[in-house]
Amino acid sequence: MHVQTVWCGGDGMTRILAIDLGAESGRGVIGTLSDDRKLSLNVIHRFPNGPVKIGETLYWNTTGLVQEIRNAIRLAADDGGFASVGIDTWGVDFALLGKGGTLVGSPVHYRDSRTDGQVAKVFAKVPQDEIYKVTGIQTMPINTLFQLASLAEY
Length: 154
Description:
By secondary structure, the protein is α+β, with helices and mostly antiparallel strands. It has helices at residues 62-78, 118-125, 128-135, 144-152; strands at 13-21, 25-34, 39-48, 52-54, 57-59, 84-88.
């Protein structure tokens, strides 16, 4: 796949590709910024994004997401190219990487039940107010801290 780069120049516009991965869907959007600083947005690709259940565990469909991101890039390239790309994803889940950046396993979906009961277990070891002082975020079972605590039990 060849991605054409389009810089702000002859036509007075810069095109940027944004990939947004939400909990249930994703999309590719071309943002065009003109010399007069006006931004226009054009959704070029939409796709579903749902968890995959394997055994008793919910995972993100990383293979499917990578394919859909590639589709959005191809469509944006075919639609006139872009100067850069940015990807926005959910904020609590993570992937474990091994040597050389290889994926150790599929990322577990935040709606998986592995964090059930983890909030109480963590707060029994570290008081809630201490965690809040460090993180500044509201307590929700889906938070990365509680997902990591569930991993420590395996």
